[in-house]
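ok so i was messing around last nite and threw this chain in just to see what happens. nothing serious, just curious
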Amino acid sequence: MKRILLVLLAAFLAAGVFADPVILKVPVPRDTPENKSRIQAEMAKITRFQAANPGIVCQAINFDYDNTGDFLVKQAAQQAPDVFQPWATEAQMLVSKRWIIPLDGYISTWDKKDWYNKDAYLPFVVGGTRYGVPDQNYIKHVLYNKEMFAAKGVPVPSADWTWEDFVKAAVKLMDKASGVAGFAPMGKGAESGWGFTDFIYQAGGEVERMENGRAFAAFDSEEAISAAKLFKDLKWKYDAIPANWANGWGDVFNIFGSKQAAMVLDADWGRNIIINNFKMDPKNIGIAIMPKGPGSKGRHAGVLGGTFLVINGLAKGKAVQDAAWKYITFERWDDANLALVQSQIADSRSNHQFRAQFQYSPLLPGSPYVVKERKLLEANPDAAVAWGDAAFLAALPRTAHTEPPVAAQDAYGKYLANVVQALFTDQNVDPAALMKDTARKFQAEVLDPLNAKVK
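result:
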């Protein structure tokens, strides 16, 4: 009997019955009134995860990633979550500090690895190694009014269209007598600087470059200056933008929805305004990747933002890291996602609206989840919109360009926004001098003080 008990005890220990549980620190949104429903949803997910993974106990931590305050404090005290969601700009910094771990080993055994478009990982590929899984992202692209293109006999954007094609279309589509613009850019606020960077990237330029952990302004290059020249020409040479160009993010969708502009840039949610507020037929809205900039460095590029899922490099031991990977992949791209989409469609229908947002997917168009989700959207044409054909969905990830890694909001709102306003207000402004002077100020006033803190 004693021998039997010892054998059973050994078996139980091997099976982990009496083993200490793995404690996994997981993030839930900050404890604020507006986050109440999000916290409840995340806590419900934690309950399901623990039920499906006996031996793992989740410790919920109120946490939203930032790269300056709360995260740095928690990370220094080893109190940050073991799995978290940094912004798409953060890979180089996090890898250099060894604050996240390589994921190639985990991804290689994942049953959904072949579902992914390999380009979707690029913002979190460092030295050829993947450190993050795409989470909630967007990639900016072009919306255009199909009816307006057809009425003017303008070819719709192709997969290889260029700035030249974009300008020709904008000029042909404008109708000053009716107050119609070919293209409505954002012209005020931080969003104007944000939108301008799309064109800097298309030209082959950059907003910043990094050297040994230090940031340097890069929008004084010839490529970036060509983007400024384009913006100036759209206003003063071609007169192809709205006469009242001082529009913010929501304003440009109001203009497009009221058919006062033929083209606008969007990332994900702007078309909700167009369709649900202005009752524009979704079938009349076309989508295209960004036009390619000029010269040998020209490229199709749109800003990519959002978050990636990573495992904290300070997670204690392989067991915790393995548990973190299970949490990252739990319910990802399964029926729980489809149930959420179904509920969004039902909510839209009850409000006599459309689920019109475009949710960029890192998955290949033919992956099982995308096929199921698209069928679900297409089965509810009265309350849902399925955006883009297979060619667009496959090409979009290759156009992604991450935001500036350091002081992006300063670059957008305090510096590049002023560039856009100067280009649209002063016919005699010199784009090269303007860009060089603004880059010099951004370096001296923002980046140099931050660089001084880098050890």
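not much to say yet. The chain has 17 helices and 13 strands.
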